[in-house]
């Protein structure tokens, strides 16, 4: 009796699993990533050499952290275009601290970067929630304000790898189980945010706000507080990315982080985060970041012109938005049909 009763339940669970897997927004980008890596490896076997694999992970690390933070903001039907400028400011601050304060502990530099990034993110959140102006407009303004501050502060000064402690630079060199240390930090960030969004009530509130802000307010969700928190965490993670950028690259200066904001938004959208808010995941955003950075590396490996690299990324963004819109229209149609048949 137990076996007979258990069989249908097992079959139902199995069907439910495969059905859920097919509907997962992360599945298309995962398949695209696997196909891209396999095709590039066939064209150039050195692409997946130990050093090649390490470079792939390192190239994606900063973008993964930024895309994960951006996901929190986009889910609430907002956007933050200032993350590249925040990264640049924090990266230059990191170089300044190591060059100006002899023997400063690395953990203090990390703490300062996180706090500085959180402060800049909080400014964005306050302006968006208090002024009631669209986040696109606010963060476009702070993009230029933060970039201007960095240009004034840095001027023509640049800090190089020799200005930092060897232990700090080794974060992008040393590996654990084949993963660079800074990549492991990015993985921890993604896992922590994924658990928060799925398991914490305040995390689920972000989805409710993005789906329908007015309804979220009626249900008692403190919309402004949640949006403010999303911007603050996004700034904090941009600060973390800025510190890791200083560890990863040979120099930081006034132009560090310029133009990264559009790549970050692209990574989130390609990874299945709905640009109109209410759906998506940090895992998908991380996969989107991996896909975009891998595309650049793959096309470089097969010697494709940089213009075509940018064009392909643009096509991916358009496809992701169109697919997301089609999925939203289909979901709305199914909802209307189900209500009509009741």
Automatic annotation (TrEMBL):
Locations listed in the record: Cell membrane
TM regions (residue ranges): 24-44, 56-74, 81-98, 104-120, 127-146, 177-197, 227-247, 307-327
Major subcellular site: membrane
Keyword flag Isomerase: no
Membrane topology: Multi-pass membrane protein
Record's keyword terms, sorted: Cell inner membrane, Cell membrane, Membrane, Transmembrane, Transmembrane helix, Transport
Keyword Cell membrane: yes
Record's function text: Part of the ABC transporter complex LsrABCD involved in autoinducer 2 (AI-2) import. Probably responsible for the translocation of the substrate across the membrane.
Assembly mode: The complex is composed of two ATP-binding proteins (LsrA), two transmembrane proteins (LsrC and LsrD) and a solute-binding protein (LsrB).
Record's protein name: Autoinducer 2 import system permease protein LsrC
Organism: Microbacterium koreense
């Amino acid at each position: 009796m137990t076996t007979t009763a258990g069989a249908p339940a097992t079959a139902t669970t199995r069907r439910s699993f495969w059905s859920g897997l097919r509907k997962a927004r992360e599945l298309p980008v995962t398949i695209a990533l696997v196909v891209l890596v396999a095709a590039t490896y066939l064209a150039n076997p050195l692409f997946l050499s130990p050093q090649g694999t390490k470079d792939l992970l390192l190239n994606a690390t900063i973008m993964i952290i930024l895309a994960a933070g951006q996901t929190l903001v986009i889910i609430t039907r907002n956007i933050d275009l200032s993350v590249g400028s925040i990264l640049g400011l924090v990266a230059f601050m990191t170089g300044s601290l190591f060059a100006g304060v002899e023997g400063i502990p690395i953990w203090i530099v990390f703490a300062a970067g996180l706090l500085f990034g959180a402060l800049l993110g909080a400014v964005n959140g306050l302006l968006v929630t208090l002024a009631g102006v669209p986040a696109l407009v606010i963060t476009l303004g702070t993009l230029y304000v933060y970039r201007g501050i960095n240009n004034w502060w840095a001027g023509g000064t640049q800090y190089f790898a020799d200005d930092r402690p060897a232990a700090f630079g080794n974060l992008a060199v040393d590996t654990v189980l084949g993963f660079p240390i800074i990549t492991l930090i990015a993985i921890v960030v993604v896992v922590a945010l994924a658990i928060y969004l799925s398991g914490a009530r305040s995390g689920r509130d972000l989805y409710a706000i993005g789906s329908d802000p007015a309804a979220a307010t009626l249900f008692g969700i403190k919309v402004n507080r949640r949006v403010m928190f999303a911007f603050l965490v996004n700034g904090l993670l941009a600060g973390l990315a800025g510190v890791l950028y200083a560890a990863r690259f040979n120099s930081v200066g006034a132009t560090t982080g310029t133009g990264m904001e559009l790549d970050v938004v692209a990574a989130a959208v390609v990874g299945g985060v709905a640009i109109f808010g209410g759906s998506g995941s940090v895992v998908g955003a991380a996969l989107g970041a991996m896909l975009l950075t891998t595309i650049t590396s793959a096309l470089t490996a097969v010697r494709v012109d940089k213009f075509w690299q940018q064009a392909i990324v643009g096509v991916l963004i358009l496809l992701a938005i169109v697919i997301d819109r089609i999925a939203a229209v289909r979901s709305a149609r199914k909802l209307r049909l189900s209500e009509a048949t009741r």
